[in-house]
């Protein structure tokens, strides 16, 4: 009987420790992954406004063939995860070049942070 009680208490402490560790790690990762809005805006102005427009509305250059540039202020963009948007920045789209050859991970994160401000 006493053994069951000790086992149950031990399991509660173990599970509690795992949960606290997960929360702390999640907070540290989210802080570490946030970018700089000002740097992101500067990169966006230099590389992205031509197609996405100065406010990210997709009203930049029009293409003769293929999809129009994405409207970065749309609800569908807001719904996408950071991982999805970083993948798009890195790998490109049919009418969007891959930026992984020109932008560092930090610069890509900065652009993403700026893009998140456009959707508000």
Structure description:
With about 120 residues, this protein is mostly helical. It has six helices and no strands. The protein has helices at about 1-35, 35-45, 50, 75-80, 80-90, 105-120. α2 (about 35-45) crosses α6. The radius of gyration is 21 Å and the shape is elongated. The relative contact order is 0.15.
Brief summary:
The chain has helices at residues 2-33, 37-47, 49-52, 75-79, 82-91, 105-118. With 120 residues, the chain is mainly α.
List the helices and strands and how they pair.
Elements: H1 2-33, H2 37-47, H3 49-52, H4 75-79, H5 82-91, H6 105-118
Q: Can you give the mean pLDDT?
A: 82
Which spans have pLDDT < 50 for at least 5 consecutive residues?
26-32
List the secondary-structure elements in sequence, H or E. HHHHHH
Give Rg in angstroms: 21 Å
- The 3D shape can be described as elongated
* Derived structural class: mainly alpha
- Please indicate the percent range of residues in DSSP E strands (runs of 2 or more): under 5%
| Major sheet characteristics | none
- The total beta strand count reads 0
Distance between the termini: 58 Å
Question: Main traits of this protein?
Answer:
single chain, 120 residues, mainly alpha, 6 helices
